[in-house]
């Protein structure tokens, strides 16, 4: 065989899609699907000639969208046309991501109606689907995430905060609504979010860069520089390198304020007045993010390919991203530094090949993440000032210490995952994918709740240093699973699919958490030492999750389906000594839907109707009489009804697209208060939340619509685009007292506009987001138990009005 023959053969294999997995691209429908719409999907990249990025697609060229592209997805771990996948899902392809200036988590979640979240700011979000939420943001020792997040084939869900991956040179963001436990495992109770990157392509060289400048109308300027290069190393190997830097200007002001503490006594002469002059700053919530990735793809022979990759990101955010309406629009009074530093890298390896005519895939990854966070904790101090003696700290010099508390948290997280799976030929009547999975994630959590100078005063109550309360814990979560999913074509148009996943989970928590008195109670000295332990807990469970679905292809472009699926989230351990572990919660999902194309694919309309039953809901509650620290309990059930729909229409040079979700999520049982014995007790006089209470976080309605018109200006492809987003108001906490303390949000509507033109390989774009500067509030939250300090709750808004220009070039 000549070198030219070998190159031709390998290019043919690339374009046939035999090395697809965990990635996607926009391809013509005629090339997107083979026979039944499926292709075997190993875990590495799609390798095709379409690696030039956004400048080569319709949105950049201004070409007429008379023949719309289809999206190939891997939601079932096989490459399939999205219109052939019998689940409710949305895929934001590279065109859509570019058209909406998507760079970060909050940019793409606003385009996904079934997705909602609560936040403290970048890399401090908690994500959910279809209203499977109880409100509040979990601390590092809290429950595991209800939503799985993947970067390509590797799960990046961690204990604590969501990983906020910068979106550039990305093929697709995929949102799979509903439980995905059969194929995606433990943390996919509510759904799964996947970020699929572009992969190395040995067929040709490609490169590009994007430069952006922007400014918030009520805030500072920012911008970004991004670039990629795809370098063929030989006819069977290539490397792809991506780098980026982004600066987000601030738009929230920390303005002058003061407060007076009574110092927890009855003597007004001891009152102490403090101010925040040291921390006053305009537009203080800026963010700097930089990082990159490198991936190497090597075709060892006709059947085997290896793809190692490395991704790294560094993000530093200052200030707070919520404002206090009592103070003013986009203004707060902060009495301590606010800062979040999130650094992480992930190394991954994919090996794919064939055993006979079966596809074998191994994918493994190792993630290391460091989070260093400082927060103003002073509103807890305001509440504690009412507790006798709690803020009374004589300094030994005739005065009193400023009791303002601060919070510092450092998390060192690691996560390793391994998956081995085998898939039968996709063209057969009976198809099966089966595999084994192992995951271990750990978090060494150091939390200091401190008052500056506390450790140096006489008779100090400090636990260590200036800490009045301290946490030093090591959390390890282990997951083992075996899974299988099979499809059988009952007829040429009717397919039955079933899947099952057996799992084991083993979660441990060891360390110390508490006051000086907690240390003394277990024989620890103060200050505490590394060997001081008052928490040493272990939780184990095993079980299975399953699904079954039936889809009927009425015509090649019209499908209806019915699905029953289940999901689970493992239980875990509470950090308070003496409190029992909480058990797994589960979700049963009943769904019917259709996916249709009409008029030669000029019109697409997909819809899903669903009912979900959430059982043994994990919920954080403080026992009656407890101060500060809440525990997680299994407290009851909830029922969720809803409909999700998306559509697009191509009318000459005009493209109309939109998606929407209506979600009615309520408690199906009373959530009782927790007694002093740590058990639910509905006789305590006040329910935490009665049956019928609406679940928080997810708006009842959320929808977005876009109109895009492509035209020619003096021979140069151009476009005009407008987008509208509307969502209704939300509850912020499930508990009646907590939600009453912070209040609900109101519905809002925002508008985005953009226009662009291309000159050969060079494109220019101007945009304005939130054009009318609507102060839409996504959530209201506190860094304090809401019933203690709900009056100081922060409102976390959508980004204010922002103007920007962007230049892109592809080679």
Fold and architecture overview:
The protein is mainly β and 811 residues long. It has 10 helices and 43 strands. It has a 22-stranded antiparallel barrel. It has a 5-stranded mixed beta sheet with strand order 5-10-11-8-9.
Report a brief summary of the structure:
The chain is mostly beta strands. Helix content is 8%, strand content 50%. It starts with a helix and ends with a strand.
List keywords for this structure.
single chain; 811 residues; mainly beta; 22-stranded antiparallel beta barrel; 5-stranded mixed sheet; 10 helices; 8% helix; 50% strand; disordered N terminus
Blueprint (SSEs and pairs):
Elements: H1 3-16, E1 26-27, H2 29-32, E2 38-39, H3 58-61, E3 70-73, E4 79-81, E5 89-93, H4 94-99, H5 105-109, E6 115-119, E7 125-129, E8 147-151, E9 154-155, E10 170-177, H6 181-184, E11 191-197, E12 206-216, E13 221-234, E14 237-248, E15 253-254, E16 258-261, E17 272-275, E18 287-299, E19 305-318, E20 331-332, E21 339-355, E22 358-376, H7 378-384, E23 406-423, E24 430-450, E25 467-489, E26 494-514, H8 516-521, E27 535-555, E28 558-569, E29 585-598, E30 603-615, E31 618-621, E32 631-634, E33 638-651, E34 654-667, E35 673-674, E36 680-681, E37 701-713, E38 716-727, H9 736-742, E39 748-759, E40 762-769, E41 777-781, H10 786-789, E42 794-797, E43 802-810
